Amino acid sequence: MRKKVIFKGTLLPWLLLLPQLLITGVFFFWPAGQAIYGSFLREDAFGLSREFVGLENFSDILADPTYLAAGWNTVVFSSAVAFSALGIALFLAVQADKAIRGTNFFKTMLIWPYAVAPAIAAVLWLFMFHPQIGLFGRMINGMGILWDYKLNGGQAMTLVVVAAAWKQVSYNFIFFMAGLQSIPRAVLEAAAIDGARPMRRFWTIIFPLLAPTSFFLLVVNIVYAFFDTFGTIHALTGGGPGQATTTLIYKVYVDGVQNLNFGSSAAQSVILMAIVILLTAVQFRFIERKVHY
């Protein structure tokens, strides 16, 4: 029987919640409030003067073609990173879940990349695909294919997508493996006895039972692609060439830190936060309906 814990009074529950509430308030609500407040202001680069301009920062941003281009780059980049990382991780998890020799070794190797920082991951891919010093970059050029991601925007976008997705595959792999191990073996064995082939067992039994895990990872991967890929882009391409890999989160950095346009940077961060909240709400509103727990 389950024992239900009943607190005498409300002091102890609030004390237990206090550390998390403080962390959330200091590192999320306070910076978010400052960003919202700063988005209505225009101040000089040294912060000596400021002026309330209302929604002018937002109107300037939405009329800026470079911001709209960064928005399109974000759509392409986040979609490619999220779905490629999820697809590859699911495939690897299904293969690692099979009864083969060295399964535990392969599982460990697939989990390790998650411990690599985004900037370090970008440097690893830079040394592999640099057109002059990279092993694979020189190999591609040696095959007669012109490879230089520092000059070709399409190649640069492909490289940052691959690097960012590689970094996230391990995270997805862990959850998919846990989901696969929770599926009763008796169900799969019964389907095999009934004559269901491996592919049919996957689409009719395994994948539907992984729906809650897949939905959770979809939300997490979208947020990751929007926010946590800054280090990868900064270390690998710096938003170039010609802003071909400049996403919304990277443009916030460029305008705020490099160009010292604090009002525009704050307004962009508010818009980005609203987009991610809206996307998450839409996913919970429409996609979760098809998830069976």
UniProtKB/TrEMBL annotation:
Residues 71-283 form the ABC transmembrane type-1 domain. The keyword Transmembrane applies. It is found in: Cell inner membrane; Cell membrane. It is a multi-pass membrane protein. Pfam families: BPD_transp_1. The chain crosses the membrane at residues 12-32, 75-94, 115-136, 156-180, 201-227, 266-287. Keywords: Cell inner membrane, Cell membrane, Membrane, Transmembrane, Transmembrane helix, Transport. Its main location: membrane. Signal peptide: none annotated. It comes from the Bacteria. Part of the ABC transporter complex UgpBAEC involved in sn-glycerol-3-phosphate (G3P) import. Probably responsible for the translocation of the substrate across the membrane. Belongs to the binding-protein-dependent transport system permease family. This is Sn-glycerol-3-phosphate ABC transporter permease UgpA. It comes from Falsiroseomonas oleicola.
